Amino acid sequence: MIVDRTSLRRAFGAFATGVTVVTTGGDAPHGMTANSFTSVSLDPPLVLICVGHEAIMHGALRTARTFGVSVLASDQEAVARYFADNSRPLGKEQFDTVDWLPGTQTGVPLIKGAMAHFECDLRASHDGGDHTIFIGRLLSMDRGDATEALIFHQGKFLSRIGVRT
């Protein structure tokens, strides 16, 4: 059965997800809002992110080989929208207006105020249709003080369960 992209996107949107900012560091750091993030394994500690082939992050991950994931808190919708905006500056400049700190293991930019931070070493990549599934081995993690996550559901951000923005 062939499904049109709009219907498929709406059906996929029925599954509520957390919102992250994935980052790479180095000479040309880059950030991207992503909701395709999940834990894979506790032993060894592995996570995955899915990145579209056309995204700048796709090439940045292949070059950098390390990445960070900041799990956004409920009050960080503006950060999510910023890193989803293709008109923002590229390179180091895109982090000029965002509060961030360097990761302790890789130096990747991590978003301040996030619920959790993960630094990862790229271990594998797998074909995922129009996306690539990147598997990262955990190098460091920390849990922030925020208690409520930013959620994405049916094409909208939720800053609190049941409250659409």
Structure in words:
Helix content is 15%, strand content 45%. It is α+β, with helices and mostly antiparallel strands and 165 residues long. The chain has one domain (5-164): Pnp Oxidase, Chain A. Strand 11 and strand 12 (156-160) form a beta hairpin. The longest helix has 9 residues, at 56-64. The model has no long low-confidence stretch (mean pLDDT 93).
Rounded to an integer in angstroms, the radius of gyration calculated over CA atoms is 15 Å
By CATH reckoning, the class would read Mainly Beta
User: What is the total domain count?
Assistant: 1
- What is the tally of beta strands? 13
Portion of residues in helices? 10-25%
Q: Specify the oligomeric state.
A: single chain
- Residue windows where pLDDT falls under 50 for at least 5 positions: none
Topology order in helix (H) and strand (E) letters = HEEEEEHEHEEEEEEE
CATH superfamily: Electron Transport, Fmn-binding Protein, Chain A
Main sheet: strands, sense, barrel: 7 strands, antiparallel
Separation of termini? 34 Å
* Spatial ordering of strands, largest sheet: 3-2-6-9-10-5-4
The assigned CATH architecture is Roll
